[in-house]
């Protein structure tokens, strides 16, 4: 099953699935493009997700996001419920680890998050979904360790199927 928060690999470098979505009538996932870039991945390169193959379909530089098409049947895709964020509690998810945070500001492109100083996301957690009230409301892009703040890409203006 392909689900948000699980690892994906491109050129054997790990990334995190930020959301499982339908895009242009295709089964896709979103992740941060900067982690793919570290692994030397570009549009067209192969990706593996939980035993399924995929490839980098598009890169959205303005959002630091990559769209990966997955060769898996829809029955194996745990599509993310996407939503609009609200100020208040949320969490990021990487594997089974929930990292609680607060959505401090919201924007059409980015959201700012506040984490506890004692439990900050790690650099490899970029790409993790930001979940609030059971819906993915963003994708974690970076963490500023000096003030325990984070930056997440908004999903509001992206051409995704929000009904899932």
Would you count the extended β strands for me?
13
Across the major sheet, the strand order is 8-9-10-13-12-11
Mean pLDDT, to the nearest integer, reads 93
Helix content: under 10%
Number of helices: 1
C-alpha end-to-end distance: 16 Å
Proportion of residues in extended strands: over 45%
Q: What's the CATH topology label of the largest domain?
A: Thrombin, subunit H
The CATH architecture classification of the largest domain is Beta Barrel
Contiguous runs where pLDDT drops below 50 for at least 5 residues: none
Biggest sheet, open or closed, and with what strands and sense? 6 strands, antiparallel, barrel
Radius of gyration: 14 Å
Q: What topology emerges from the helices and strands here?
A:
Layout: E1 7-10, E2 13-16, E3 19-23, E4 26-32, H1 33-38, E5 46-49, E6 52-60, E7 65-70, E8 88-94, E9 97-105, E10 110-115, E11 129-132, E12 135-144, E13 149-154
């Amino acid at each position: 099953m392909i689900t948000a928060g699980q690892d994906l690999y491109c050129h054997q470098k790990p990334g995190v699935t930020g959301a499982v979505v339908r895009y242009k009538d295709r089964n896709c996932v979103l992740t941060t493009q900067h982690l793919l870039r570290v692994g030397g991945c570009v549009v067209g390169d192969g990706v593996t997700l939980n035993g399924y193959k995929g490839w980098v379909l598009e890169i959205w530089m303005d959002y630091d996001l990559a769209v990966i098409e997955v060769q898996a049947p829809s029955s194996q895709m745990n599509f993310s419920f996407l939503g609009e964020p609200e100020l208040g509690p949320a969490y990021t998810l990487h594997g089974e680890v929930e990292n609680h945070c607060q959505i401090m500001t919201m924007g059409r492109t980015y959201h700012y998050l506040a984490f506890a100083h004692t439990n900050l996301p790690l650099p490899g957690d970029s790409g993790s979904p930001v979940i609030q009230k059971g819906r993915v409301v963003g994708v974690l892009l970076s963490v500023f360790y000096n003030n325990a703040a984070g930056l997440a890409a908004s999903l509001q203006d992206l051409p995704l199927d929000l009904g899932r």
